From TrEMBL, chains A, B:
Organism of derivation: Elliptochloris bilobata
SUPFAM superfamilies in alphabetical order: Tryptophan synthase beta subunit-like PLP-dependent enzymes
Full protein name: Serine racemase
Phylogenetic classification of the source organism: Eukaryota, Viridiplantae, Chlorophyta, core chlorophytes, Trebouxiophyceae
One of the GO BP terms on file: D-serine biosynthetic process
Protein keywords: Lyase, Magnesium, Pyridoxal phosphate
Family under the similarity heading: Belongs to the serine/threonine dehydratase family.
Superkingdom of origin organism: Eukaryota
Length: 339, 339
């Protein structure tokens, strides 16, 4: 980057602040919790930003709501479309319902009925497709052609990135000066929004990315950051953190590359151990993807990654969502006698 | 009761207010949460008093802390003793640890190691006994004789009842005017404390007790209230709400008899359904005993029990605790592949 010439990132602090004003009537200001038992295990103070209490059960509502509220009158009439089976689908349907516009959600046909029902419960218009990325994209394109709906990517979209960044505005007001924020990363919408807002407000803050390495050791963010180029050739991680299997995009990657400080790739057993602390000590529900930030904060690889000059005293960990299908894990059945 | 002659109850509003001042430096002021999805299912607004976020993970800390803090200097030197394998044991150990006095906890030898370890983790001095009520009482008496420690009953103790009642002082400040409070009942310490404080402050408020009927249909509180006499002859309920298998005592029963308005005995499947709503919609952890209040609020037997003249609009539900042994239910294992 030549001196004096500013790199054009997709999102700025001002975009995040505008998003915060736009979503304020709809989104929850989620609480920050602390837990002395976990602080003891970590060796530093952790402020947990609890996005499982966000509308729709995850931070995704912030970005979806900002994208919907930023539409023009004409765009609103045609509605929005996305392809997703997860929290983004739910959140976009809910954001559209609150704005009273249609949301078309292209859902792979192998998506559990409970998730399809949840989208429909927020008045989302479910359109089934074959379970492949090509079919999902073709399905969304077909809806766009038929209805004129605006496509809203789960992460690679400036309005979504700015919406997710609103989390950081709240967090820094709630927790004050921080040494670092641990953020689960997949497509990078949340991380890029947070990094943009937090570094603008507290330039010394470190943004530490947390990704699942999966049983197949497929840590694409760590590999991309290490090489300084977006690695799209690695397999999808085989992980219980099923919300973190996406890939960064052309809008999120430059921010991730330039405005984040480290990546910790955590194992499956580290994710489960973090969940256990969150359930048993904090008494809150978190999905595996949502616990990956704490897994990174507790990882024995954290200190070597940061190096001897970095000392953490006060950090935040984003608990990004709490949408767990307990029934599919046999949890309710475990409380009742066999039939 | 002759006119002009006041019945001597074990606890008064003033006792509860004194307890609140005594425990304020130690106990958490727990949050009140709401959930629009559950309000919709109930047909009225519910304010959830979240005692899973109390120290020790349950409301029990309030009473234990008040009992410890109310000791004389001489009593403190000898410490406290109880027999319990549950939340009262944990809470008394923690309250004693914070006061820097010994707590002897007589624990049945069939108590899971994880629970014994939790008591020891709060510096509780575990004394094992045979797994029967006679052996537990004899064990506690032996400790008393040996050490001079003060026995603190889990519920049938005026200081404990007053301590549990502090929950109601906070709740009415947080939620304002209420039509009713739903409270899980076992020995009646929590219910009697809440009834005493809440009815003194809002005389029209209804205290609705929630108990598990168990697979063996052993609803002793409902039977006792219906007959106006303390029924001690019913079997212990066979229930997953293992914190609610105790019996009322001579101090709690008169308050329960005179200052509570209705009893709803809930089924095991109703308890699990309430837990499911709390985990999946509110995103917080609750133990089965802690979900019994919501099960009662959602029961089809509630309206017939209250009669046609009672209309509920704004109520509170006490979520009394969140100490769940997820590992024993196979929950962590369910996230990892078979070994």
């Amino acid at each position: 980057m030549a001196p004096g010439r500013e790199q054009a990132y997709a999102v700025s602090l001002e975009d995040v602040q505008a998003a915060a004003a736009r979503i304020a009537p709809f989104a929850h200001r989620t609480p920050v919790m602390t837990c002395s038992a976990i602080d003891k295990a970590a060796g530093f103070s952790i402020f947990f930003k609890c996005e499982q209490f966000q509308k729709g059960g995850a931070f995704k509502f912030r970005g979806a709501c900002n994208a919907v509220q930023a539409l023009s009158e004409e765009q609103r009439r045609c509605g929005v479309v996305t392809h997703s089976s997860g929290n983004h689908a739910l959140s976009l349907a809910l954001a559209a319902q609150l704005a009273d516009i249609p949301a078309y959600i292209v859902v792979p046909s192998n998506t559990p009925q409970v998730k399809q029902d949840a989208v429909a419960g927020y008045a989302g218009l479910v359109e089934l497709c074959e379970p492949s990325m090509d079919a999902r994209e073709a399905g969304a394109a077909a809806v766009q052609a038929r209805t004129g709906a605006t496509f809203v990517s789960p992460y690679n979209n400036a309005a979504v990135m700015a919406g997710q960044g609103t989390l950081a505005l709240e967090l820094l007001e709630q927790a004050g000066e921080l040494d670092a924020i641990f953020v689960p990363i997949s497509g990078g919408g949340l991380s890029s929004g947070i990094a943009t807002a937090a570094k603008a407000l507290q330039p010394g803050i470190k943004i530490i990315l947390a990704e699942p390495r999966g049983w197949n050791d497929a840590a694409d963010v760590a590999a991309s950051k290490a090489e300084g180029r977006l690695r799209m050739d690695l397999p999808k991680p085989a992980t219980i953190a099923d919300g973190l299997q996406g890939r960064m995009g052309d809008l999120t990657w430059p921010v991730i590359r330039d405005r984040t400080d480290a990546v910790i790739a955590v194992t499956e057993t580290e994710i489960v151990a973090a969940m256990q602390l969150i359930y048993e000590r904090m008494k809150v529900v978190v999905e595996p993807s949502g616990a990956v930030g704490l897994a990174a904060a507790l990882s024995p690889r954290l200190a070597p990654t940061l190096g001897p000059d970095v000392r953490l005293r006060r950090v935040a960990v984003v608990l990004s969502g709490g949408n767990v299908d307990f029934g599919a894990r046999g949890f309710w059945r475990a409380w009742l006698p066999p039939e």
